[in-house]
Each structure stands twice: as C-alpha cells, then as structure tokens.
Structures
1.
Amino acid sequence: AQKVTQAQTEISVVEKEDVTLDCVYETRDTTYYLFWYKQPPSGELVFLIRRNSFDEQNEISGRYSWNFQKSTSSFNFTITASQVVDSAVYFCALMSLKLTFGKGTLLTVNP
Amino acid sequence: EPEVTQTPSHQVTQMGQEVILRCVPISNHLYFYWYRQILGQKVEFLVSFYNNEISEKSEIFDDQFSVERPDGSNFTLKIRSTKLEDSAMYFCASDGDSSYEQYFGPGTRLTVT
C-alpha cells in the first residue's frame, strides 16, 4: 500500500522568510515517482516537480528547492524568500500505479 | 500551451440524479485519470484509463461510476445516482506517455442537494 504523510497541516510565515514543507512517503515499489503540486485559492492543481526513485539529486528552480532522501523516505520542499503569492495548499504525491496524495499543507504568507 | 479543459465548472444536481462530467484531455495524450477532492480534504484517485479501458480504479469507484471516451477528444465521468457525499471537486488529468507527468484540468465542482 502507498501512503504519503504531510505532517504539517498549516504553516504561517511572514514574507521573505524561508519555509520548508515536509513530505514522508511509504511504498513497497522500487520504481516510483514523487510530485509536488500547488493548489491556490482558485482551486486548480499546478504541477511543480516530478522526481523518480532513482534520482536523488536535489533540485533548485528559482526560489523553490526540493530535497529527496530515499534513506528517510522524504521529499521535502523549501521556498526561499517566500512571497504572498506563495500562499496556497501544497500537496506531495507518490505515483506507482496510481497517484496518491498527501493531505496537503496550507501555507499562508503574510505581508 | 496545451491544457486540459473541463465542463461545466460547477454543477448542481439533486440526489438520485445522473450527472456526466466532461473533460477534454491534451490532444496527443494517451492516459486519462479522474480524481476527486472533497472540500478541505486531500485529492483522491478514482480511476485511470488507457487504450479504451480502465487500467486501475480505487475502492471509491464503485458501480455508480463509469468512464467513457466517446470520441477522440472527450473523456467523461458518469455518476448514475448521485448521493450527498458525492459533492466534491472532480479533476480530470491526462498524461502523454506514462511519464507520470499528469496535467490536471481546472476541476468541476459538483454539488449534490
């Protein structure tokens, strides 16, 4: 069975602070993919990143960075110098045969 | 940039009625999915569809649900007899080559009264 745990239900920060969203996953599969999606208040799901289980290289894209550690089954997401527009629910997801989402973390960035 | 579209954006229906939610996946994509998100909760997988048949479905996807690709462009989700607990946002997604980069539509909000 697959499981994704996002222990942080809500996080509130002040603009320009760095923030890390945690994601821990469980799977018995050796080949799988990990994702992060952003869901702004408008409701759509915005794809942020995909990582396969064989690629543990960390990735940086602008203010976003991701830390994949297979040894701890974690795929954490850091936003550097947060902005108000980053306010959203962020979902971590695991794909093997199907996409399993975590419960999401509501990030609020205050001005 | 190509995108997945869904209609309607909001559907209100009475309990017991049938509803059909429509999706137009990205044109050269081959893998199609439906997900639902009850308000304030996580996104849940319903079903995946490839080569004109269901390839995977969740326990949520019972006999009340069906999917169809009636022509080369539409992908539909039918709920035969809606229940109050079917009220949710329904997302369609498509994937070009099983690379697992699923593109999501904007969702249809279904309200069952």
2.
Amino acid sequence: QKEVEQNSGPLSVPEGAIASLNCTYSDRGSQSFFWYRQYSGKSPELIMFIYSNGDKEDGRFTAQLNKASQYVSLLIRDSQPSDSATYLCAASNTGFQKLVFGTGTRLLVSP
Amino acid sequence: NAGVTQTPKFQVLKTGQSMTLQCAQDMNHNSMYWYRQDPGMGLRLIYYSASEGTTDKGEVPNGYNVSRLNKREFSLRLESAAPSQTSVYFCASVNTGGVYEQYFGPGTRLTVT
C-alpha cells in the first residue's frame, strides 16, 4: 500500500467551479504536507504547504488538513482552464527531509 | 538565479551503456534529491544527500549510484542501463529553513533500448 494515496482522476470541472482534490496518508508521523502542480512534460512546482490542522488559504487555493483522519485536501476556487494539470500530494515526516508523493490527480477544467 | 539545472534534457541509451545525469543548484541548499517518475507510479526517491559529503538510499536505489561533488552539484550514474530504467528523472533541492520546500529541476527524459 502506497503511503500517500490519491485518486488518479481525471477530475473534470467546468470553468468557474470549485475543484476539490483529496489525499490520504498512512504514516501518522507525517507532519508537513505539500501540494505540487505538474503540467504535462514539466517539473512539479509547489502550490501550497500545510502543517497545522485546519485550513490555509492562498489566493484561489485552500489547503485543508485533518490529522485525526489522515486527510489532506486542496480546493481550487474559480477554476480556470490554466489550472488543468496533475496535482501531486506529498507528506514529510518531521526530522527527515524526504517527501513521499502520491501518484497525482489529473484535473481538467473545461471552458 | 537559475534554480535547479539538469543536463542532459533527453538521452537515449542502449542496454548496458553507462551515463551520468548532472544536477546543480545555485540556491545554497544543503539537501539534494534524485527522483524518477513513471506513469501511474508517481515520483519515487532514488537517492538523496542531506548535506555535502553524505548520501543515502531512497525507495528505488538499485542500478544507480550518486556523487555529491560539492554543495551545488549532485550527480546520478547508471553503470549498466536497463530498459526498466526508462523514465523521467528529476533532481530537486530543499530549502531547509523550516518547511522543507523542494525545488525541482526541469527533468531528464531517458530512454533505454
């Protein structure tokens, strides 16, 4: 069983809608969580990180963390076609510098 | 700043050939990483270097060797390439200022025939 699980998708949403991307993790020692966006043929780029329970907002993006449920999510408000990409969830155990990545969820935003 | 750079961008090898993938960062990061990315498998850690002079195995180290040449450079060597090593390879470096945010290079697309 992979330590970080994501639905591979594709998740299809219309332009302007809210896209909700989900991720679960198995290692209860995980302390920091990251969302990366990866366009086809490109390298991952960091969108957000979160390490406290609750919500963290940055522009159109909101990351949510629930450590009791071992669940991380990313909400994208007012989705745009340019948001179409694969979103990678990653977890890090405090004291280590290694990230464990999920396989990613492909998001398609239609005009 | 160029960030994280990788060479080459593309490479085709025959089975049994060797090659070295180069990675350099100019952000004064202590830690550097090599990942491979395969369809449906996500990013998997091959080796990492927490600091200059140290290297450690990741999830899939077999068939690879690494060298942390100095603080800036971290190379990945395939001694005898196999078709199973066909993949996209990413180098990354980490800002260890508290959050471990990783910055990725542009990747090397390797095909082994």
3.
Amino acid sequence: GAVVSQHPSRVICKSGTSVKIECRSLDFQATTMFWYRQFPKQSLMLMATSNEGSKATYEQGVEKDKFLINHASLTLSTLTVTSAHPEDSSFYICSARVSRGPRNTQYFGPGTRLTVL
Amino acid sequence: GESVGLHLPTLSVQEGDNSIINCAYSNSASDYFIWYKQESGKGPQFIIDIRSNMDKRQGQRVTVLLNKTVKHLSLQIAATQPGDSAVYFCAETPLYNQGGKLIFGQGTELSVKP
C-alpha cells in the first residue's frame, strides 16, 4: 500500500518558537495532502487541504497565519506552527490522497506529537 | 460537517469472538466510505472501503456493511485478536470529489480481552 511518512515523530518546544512538520508520500505522487489535528480520545479534525503548487485551503476556525502550509512538490507538504503556545500541543497527522484513479482514498502518516512548554 | 470532539464509545470483546462496530454517517451525498484503524500514538491505517453501489464487502477477517436507507455503516471483525485493540473510525466522502475531504465519525475504541 501507499506509504506516508512524517518527521519528526515527536517534538517538544518552548512557547513562542516555531515548529515545522514534514509530510512525505514515499512511493506515490500526491497532488493533495491534508493536515489533521487530534486531541486525546477524540476524532481527527481537518485543519487544511494542501494542494501542490497552490495555496492551502483552511477549515473554518483554523488560523492560516499560525499554521503555515507549503506543498512544494508532489511528495512533500510541510506544516509550520508559528509562535507555538501550550494550547497548540496536540497530535498532528497528515494524509495524502492517491492521485491516480477515481478512488478518494487517503493514506495517513504516523503522526507528530507536539508538546509546547 | 466535521466530527465533533466527544469521548469515544468503547466496545469490549473476548478474544476469539466477533466484533461489530457501528457508524452512522451524515451526508446523503456521500458515496464512498472507509474504515480506519488507529493504534495508540499512531496514524490511522486503512482497513477496508466500500462504494455506495454495494451493500457488503469482505476483506481478510473484516466485513463492511452499508445500509444507505438509514445511513448506517458497520465493520465486522471475525475472531477478534488482541492485536485488533485500537480505535476504529469510519469516514465518508463523495467518490469523485476532487476536493477529497473525508468526514470522520467519532470513533469506537475496541478492547480485546485475552
């Protein structure tokens, strides 16, 4: 199956610093990637849709200036949490949509645990 | 709309028994459904999918049933094993939606007792 990686797997940072999370599709091209946020014991909440070569589309309530998304190539999307605060601590997960064929299947990365002190 | 944060319902089964996890979906226009398994601290893992022109699909030890009349989806796991312990999410999406958004259900935590 399609493999999606994320880096780093976990990060601890001080309040006010910025953190970059990478999402890569390893064996397929993904014109569309998605970024989710997940709190403990809760479902995945879509933050934004990342399209290669264009601006990301953010969900309602998600600050685009705080969560910067760049999709520079067909295999890489990055999420930068700017000026992180403790309330940004969460599990961030990316997914990549398989570009070939009609199926709207998304494959997920392993997630990044962000802890802001 | 998007899934709302709620405490996860739980299902506890004995090892070897069959498990049935249910999901009610919201959008009548959705025509493609996916079940994901998420183990603690990991990303969701694709299990099985089904299109709306089907009402049943089988995989290895798993079966997905779709009832479009009542907008209900279920995942059946045969001979449940300890390794099946995880949170299971259903997701819905329009099949040919180029936007590709998935709408996730709230999830069910499956606990398998040895």
